[in-house]
Amino acid sequence: MSVKETIFGTNQDGREIHLYTLQNQKGTEVKIANIGAAIVSVKVKNSSGEYTDVVLGYDDVKGYENNPVYFGVAVGRGANRIENAQFTLDGKTYYLSKNEGENNLHSGPDSYAFRVWDFAGMTENSVSLSLESPDQDQGYPGNLLMKVTYILTEENELKIHYEGECDQTTVVNMTNHTYFNLDGHNFGDVKEHWLQIEASKFTPIKDKASIPTGELWAVEGTPLDFKSGRIIGHDLQSDYEQMRFVNGYDHNFVIDGWDGNLQKVAEAKGSKSGITMKVYSDLPGVQLYTGNGLEHVKGKEDMYYENYAGFCLETQYFPNAINEKEFPSPILKKGDKYDTTTVYQFVVE
After folding, report:
1. What whole-number percentage of the chain has pLDDT above 70?
2. Does position 349 have pLDDT exceeding 90, yes or no?
3. CA-based diameter of the chain, in Å?
């Protein structure tokens, strides 16, 4: 097991950006950049014994500085969408940037996804990065200190551990926005991937703006029924209204039996590689996004990514949860600790 630090490049302000390479005894390799705390690559052995990079991304710092599709990054302070870019907390209304129509997406154009994180420590199998987010940053109350630790185990688990504390009651909903293609980032698309999600319900959206209605709908009998597993591409072009709104999947699933403890929430398998990915989380929701907005995005190794080139499983509190009293709350109270873990485990069959 080893961790190696190198220079990834410099950003537009001339600041050095670092790349941290984690490798276990199996040869599995994970690269993390401190810009956006991004997962730049994950290389695992496929069923033929060849190493396959299973995440979409960029070759250089410039890509991650711009990154309109959020490849690989840690998203915060509040991931996903907040309706009308505002919320009320303890009787006070807070206003965020409107960066997706009238709504706020991933905390706006100054998301943590685009910032340079500070080095916060390293062990033989992990690297920690931290970020100080001052009061009123992005429109949120309170001085927040956020830390994310990436851990690679000998069981081929990539663990993402978020920790945060704030001096005021605030909203925190961190996620990671990695796009996976288990047949390889340069394979083409994920339409033939098999996917299973431990969710009997989802949060339906009102329209193309993707704000939840506040209801919970059963997945049974719909293209969103991944309870027993199905091929991702089977209903991508379905006439089901929820699918037509977003040209595929971009929906939050409600995890069955959620109690705040780490549990399996999803499993996916590549169609050619024999690589299976199991996902574990202690959060109540997971957003399945099938890369519906990827249109000729230049990525690693001169690869151009198109629609459905990768899929995201973003563990999270539900979209717009701060404005829906019936949803699990993303409020972090003053003095409490934000502490959540997501695990992506890779198995070759």
Report:
1. 100
2. no
3. 59
pLDDT in tens, 253-285: 999 999 999 999 999 999 999 999 999 999 999
Burial label for 209, CB within 10 Å (0-12, 13-18, 19+), is middle
Residues designated catalytic: 177, 314
In which residue are the tokens 């980032």 written? 185
| Per-residue three-class SS string for the chain | CEEEEEEEEECCCCCEEEEEEEECCCCCEEEEECECCEEEEEEEECCCCCEEECECCCCCHHHHHHCCCCCCCEECCECCEEHHHEEEECCEEEECCCCECCEEECCCCCCHHHCECEEEEECCCEEEEEEEECCCHHHCCCCEEEEEEEEECCCCEEEEEEEEEECCCEECECEECCCECCCCCCCCCCCCCEEEECEEEEECECCCCCCECCCCEECCCCCCCCCCCEEHHHHCCCCCHHHHHHCCCEEEEEECCCCCCCEEEEEEECCCCCEEEEEEECCCEEEEECCCCCCCEECHHHCEECCCCCEEEEEECCCCHHHCCCCCCCEECCCCEEEEEEEEEEEEC
